[in-house]
Design brief:
Chain lengths: 459, 169
């Protein structure tokens, strides 16, 4: 923590509540712009519900296309929160402090967005209740607990509920700060939302224990969610390239790769938009880039394992699929872009300290990773379905329709709009964690150098 | 019986706050009737404060039990209510049930933990009593709950420790 500045509580409140207590000039036009895209997306959904899934490019045998790709993508992004927040909290990594709230928020909003895609993909979303709720006793229609499509809502529902509660509990002290800085209806709102937080030792102690306990509970959920999403594919023996035992860890590590990259993107934007240079410092990007190198290498190993296990079996359909994915137009172009953006360009760059400490470079490389990771999901889902299978007598190549592209665009605008709305009412960087860092860190003289030292609580 | 009052002394340094806590202990105020309020989590014991034991760790176990029970009811109930025999295998698919049971167990544990955190933090309590908004700006508040007959004594102790301001509610 070499770049740390000593800040008093007044300055921390003043700087970190800048977006809450006043409205930056860019905020309203940006939110309105995003709102236009969001409304456009909802209109597209309406058109699709009215006219049916025929308006998409989905057709036999490719029934899972851009919607399911985007669903897996956003579930992947959601792994940022718990990876950053829970693991770094449990390991008491000091640099986690400005990152945790943004990461948890990204988890909640990306999961919320991910949920939309299977719903709209179902074509008739109001019939979703048959899918997971055992309510139609009269007709004897019940959910099929043996289907991974039923496991999914349970996994994602658990993760979304847990992440939202995790986020809320960590917000309580900061809501108390906002209550003390506002008047009128806002004060009433924050008084109720903070539940009357006072900041006595009992409450602080429970806040610390809660952070650790909830982190420990959320970590197994985090691993299970993308494992279960991967089983949507892996327990389907009929589709080439899907029936793979390595899918669960492959999906989880891939999700962490894309999620942590998304946190980097978000942190760079937060620093630029709100001018939080004292809180989000190059050292944080440096630490995240180091973490990303490890995650990306693990992901590359699993990508390699997934490919090699498929080819090594020498089964003709599996080999033909891999040949198509990597060497046939247009999949070969997508594969090259996927590999370059997902690994080959960003990871070697991150080996250079100059790049890790350059926020613009980190921003663009993190965006590259997520282009690659979206393509990875597309290349897993669509080519396997596109090949002619036994007993399939009509098949067509999948062309993504403009409506599907529109809904992909909607998903990004939706997440960004939710983030900006949140930023207006709640602090994006945890105030109490930042202040705690100031209290627990002190400068010590070692020989001729002065170093910041962090005090640890006794267990 | 005398009415209960809440008196707050406001201090600008942690040391002054700790002195006030020591003063209250020396004056014979019972543990649990006075507390320190801060806008930052200070290391435990920084003010010589009394932190009663909590029972938070019981909550996740209780929640997990509720979660797993609901999961078994859901998975077994739906399979038995609409039995589909696949390849002569048993109706209850244990592997599939385990996945849903795992998720609902964890969900129960998380929800109960959050309920536990709120309950053990003695929240919600929208009546803040004697409080000052400067506490979340770095000042230290020392609050005493006392009867009418000890009110002046409490104010005296807080003043002696160097309170910038004393408030009563």
């Amino acid at each position: 923590m070499q770049q740390r500045r000593i800040l008093d509580e007044f300055t921390v409140n003043h700087e970190l509540l800048r977006g809450n207590l006043a409205t930056p000039k860019w905020w309203l036009p940006t939110v309105l712009g995003l709102l236009v895209v969001v409304l456009f997306g909802f209109t597209l959904m309406g058109i699709m519900f009215n006219r049916g899934l025929g308006v998409t490019g989905l057709s036999r045998p490719v029934y899972w296309g851009l919607f399911i790709t985007t669903f897996v993508f956003w579930v992947g992004i959601s792994h940022a929160g718990i990876m950053i927040s829970a693991i770094l909290r449990l390991t008491q990594a000091e640099w986690r402090r400005p990152v945790t709230r943004a990461a948890e928020l990204l988890t909640v909003f990306s999961l919320l967005t991910a949920l939309f895609f299977p719903l709209i993909h179902a074509g008739r979303p109001w019939r979703i209740f048959y899918w997971i709720t055992p309510y139609d006793f009269a007709r004897g229609i019940f959910p099929n607990a043996r289907s991974p499509l039923v496991w999914d809502p349970f996994a994602i529902g658990t993760y979304l509920t847990g992440s939202t509660l995790f986020l809320y509990v960590a917000l309580l002290p900061d809501l108390g700060v906002l209550r003390d800085r506002t008047t009128g209806w806002k004060r009433s709102f924050y008084t109720v939302a903070s539940l009357g937080w006072r900041g006595n030792p009992r409450q602080w102690r429970l806040q610390t224990v809660a952070g650790i306990l909830l982190s420990a509970l959320m970590l197994p959920i985090f691993v299970s969610v993308h494992s279960i999403v991967s089983w949507d594919f892996a327990v389907t023996p009929a589709v080439e390239g899907w029936h793979s035992t390595v899918f669960a860890p492959y999906f989880v590590v891939g999700a962490v790769h894309s999620g942590v990259s998304a946190v980097v993107t978000m942190m760079a934007l937060m620093r630029w938009l709100w001018g939080w240079d004292n809180y989000i410092r190059p050292e944080h990007f440096d630490a995240l880039a180091r973490l990303l190198i490890v995650v990306a290498c693990a992901w590359l190993a699993l990508t390699f394992a997934e490919l090699i296990f498929g080819v090594y079996s020498l089964e003709a359909p599996e080999r033909a699929l891999r040949e198509m994915q990597m060497f046939e137009w247009p999949w070969n172009l997508l594969f090259i872009i996927f590999f370059l953006t997902g690994f080959a360009i960003p990871v070697p760059l991150w080996f250079f300290k100059r790049v890790r400490n350059n926020i613009a470079m980190m921003f663009w490389t993190s965006i590259l990773v997520n282009i690659g990771m979206w393509l990875e999901r597309f290349l897993i889902i669509v080519p396997g379905l596109s090949r002619k299978q036994p007993f399939v007598f009509t098949w067509d190549s999948y062309q993504v329709s403009p409506l599907e592209w529109g809904l992909l665009l909607w998903s990004f605008a939706w997440v960004m709009m939710l983030m900006l709305l949140f930023s207006k009412f709640f602090p994006l960087i945890p105030l109490f964690e930042t202040k705690e860092s100031q209290v627990f860190t002190t400068d010590v003289q070692i020989g001729r150098v002065t170093m910041p030292a962090v005090i640890r609580e006794l267990d | 019986m005398a009415a209960s009052n809440s008196v707050l002394g406001l201090y600008d340094t942690p040391n002054a706050g700790a002195d006030a806590m020591d003063g209250l202990k020396s004056a014979g105020f019972e543990l649990g009737t006075f507390d320190v309020l801060t806008g930052t989590p200070y290391p435990e014991g920084a003010f010589g404060e009394y932190v009663p034991q909590h029972r938070l760790f019981r909550f996740p176990f209780f929640g997990a039990m509720v979660g797993i029970t609901l999961a078994i009811l859901f998975t077994a109930g739906t399979q038995l209510a609409y039995p589909v025999i696949t390849g002569g295998k048993p109706i209850l698919a244990v592997f599939a049930m385990l996945i849903i049971a795992y998720e609902l167990t964890m969900l129960g544990a998380v929800v109960a933990t959050v309920v536990g955190i709120i309950f053990e933090s003695r929240l919600p309590n929208l009546n803040l009593g004697a409080y000052d908004t400067r506490i979340t700006e770095g000042y230290i508040g020392v609050v005493v709950e006392c009867e009418d007959d000890r009110l002046e004594e409490a104010r005296g102790v807080l003043q002696t420790a160097g309170a910038l301001e004393i408030k009563t509610a």
